[in-house]
Design a protein that fits this description.
mainly alpha, two-stranded antiparallel ribbon, 2% strand, elongated
Length: 244
């Protein structure tokens, strides 16, 4: 029997599929996904530990980016410290990642520090105080740690609460005013000819990561229970039978 030769339509379809495959694997014009460099520390991490560590790193980097953007829109804030903007940014990063206190916040941490930083009567550098307090709140929700290993556990409810705290903080920045009736800090700008929602997008990324991690942690324990039941059932019904 003579084999049928592929028609022109078949060749066209195959060509289109190959083009789609090539496009899907090529880096996008705005960059490509890059994984973190491997390290020996990962030997002490489960998949959940690794996901939590990467999410924490991404959330802190988002806050540092927001700090830079807030200083650009509110240059009077970093000038209150008497140091350069770069030096203030460095101090905040060190304080966050080494779990130090921030002097302008009177020793307060976590949500109490956020409340003070977003108070209309706060007179010190509000950008530094707000970013530090928000980062400290997120770290507190992760059990006070930035990197996670096999001995560490996370509480999904605390992570969920942290996401809601970010939403509240964004609302305060948008709606609260100082004694002169001005926003506490200039952030997003919506005008007749220009819309700048970059702050909202970056805060949204942080909220999304926290919510996803909270759901992932909850799913982890739920799946552990299901796997246990599956293993029990498998012990009786999913065994090979002798063949001789």
């Amino acid at each position: 029997m003579q084999k049928k030769r592929p028609t022109a339509a078949v060749f066209s379809t195959m060509f289109a599929i190959s083009l789609l495959a090539a496009c899907s694997s090529a880096p996008a014009p705005r960059g490509e996904v890059k994984g973190a460099s491997a390290s020996s520390r990962e030997l002490g991490q489960s998949d959940t530990n690794r996901v939590a560590t990467l999410a924490m790193r991404a959330n802190l980097d988002s806050l540092y980016l927001l700090m830079d953007k807030l200083y650009r829109r509110n240059p009077a804030e970093w000038k209150k410290s008497g140091a350069s903007r770069e030096e203030v940014v460095k101090r905040v990063r060190v304080a966050v990642e080494q779990r130090q206190t921030w002097s302008d916040l009177q020793g307060k941490r976590d949500i109490t520090a956020m409340s003070l930083a977003l108070s209309p009567d706060f007179k010190a550098d509000r950008v530094a105080a707000f970013i530090y307090a928000t980062a400290d709140m997120i770290v507190a929700a992760h059990g006070g740690k930035i990197e996670f290993f096999l001995i560490d556990g996370l509480d999904a409810q605390y992570l969920y609460n942290a996401a809601r705290n970010i939403e509240i903080a964004v609302w305060m920045l948008t709606n609260r005013r100082n004694a002169a009736g001005q926003p506490l800090l200039l952030s997003d700008e919506i005008g007749a000819t220009e819309r700048n929602l970059s702050f909202e997008r970056e805060f949204g990324k942080i909220i999304g990561r926290l919510d996803l991690l909270a759901e992932f942690i909850t799913e982890k324990y739920r799946r552990a229970g299901i796997s246990y039941v599956q293993n029990l059932l498998g012990g009786s019904f999913l065994q090979f039978l002798p063949v001789r």
